[in-house]
Every structure is written in structure tokens, then in C-alpha cells.
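Q: Got a minute? One more chain.
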Amino acid sequence: MLAAGLLLAAQSILSSQGAPAPTPLTCPATITVTGTASVVTPWQAESAKSEHKFERPSIYNGTPGKQEYDLAPDDTQTAGKRVRETWNLADYRDMNLFVRCRYLGTPATVVTNIPAPLKTCVFSFQNVAGNQPAASPAFECK
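A: Always. Here it is, folded:
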């Protein structure tokens, strides 16, 4: 009888905790790009690999490579040189949402859909003067 009571209590506690939090989504910190030049005879192209660090995300409604609508952040906060941009995803769930991760020194990108349980995406970075890329970029959807 005591065991049954403990089992019911444990089930009650577990069910009151609700569903587990969704796994956060982040862009890969780096990507490796393999490139081969297009050349004319008598030249021969040699392929090369290069690693590129994460630069920034772009968030879209639609379908990657087809109908895409670039979404501006809903909120931007600045503290000194640190900038924090936030997207509130619930406002855009009438269509598919996806993120395209961009990398320094290459036009190559990676893309993935943003799962429905995720509610916000935040991109923070250190603003650098001039035409330099942002420093210390961090991106996460949760």
C-alpha cells in the first residue's frame, strides 16, 4: 500500500512539471568549406579547404531558397559596445521559420528550420568601429 502511494505521489510530481524545455538551437561555431576553381585549359584546378568562424544569423519566414522573407529583430538593446538583438518567434509562426547562419570570409551558409517549441532567438555581439566584423558573436533560439 505504501509503495502504491509513493508511486502515485511520484507520478503527480512528474506530471506537474510539464514537458521538458525544448533543446536550444545555435549556429555551428565554424564550418569547413571546400572550394575548387573553374579554369580553362591548360590550367588544372586544385581544391582547398578553409575553416570559417560564425559571423551572424539571418532569420526568415518561408522556404529556404524559394519564398523567403527576411525578419528584422523585434528588439535591439545596446550597452556600451555590446548589442543584443531579439526575435519573438510567436509573432511569425503563420509560416515556416528558418535561420541562415553566415560565416566570415565566405559566401557559404548553413540553414535549418526553427522548431515550433522555440519562442525567441537572441543574437549578441560586440560592435566594432569601421567595416570590421562584429566581435564575440553569440546566437541562440530557445
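A: The first strand starts at residue 30 and ends at 35.
Q: Perfect, thanks.
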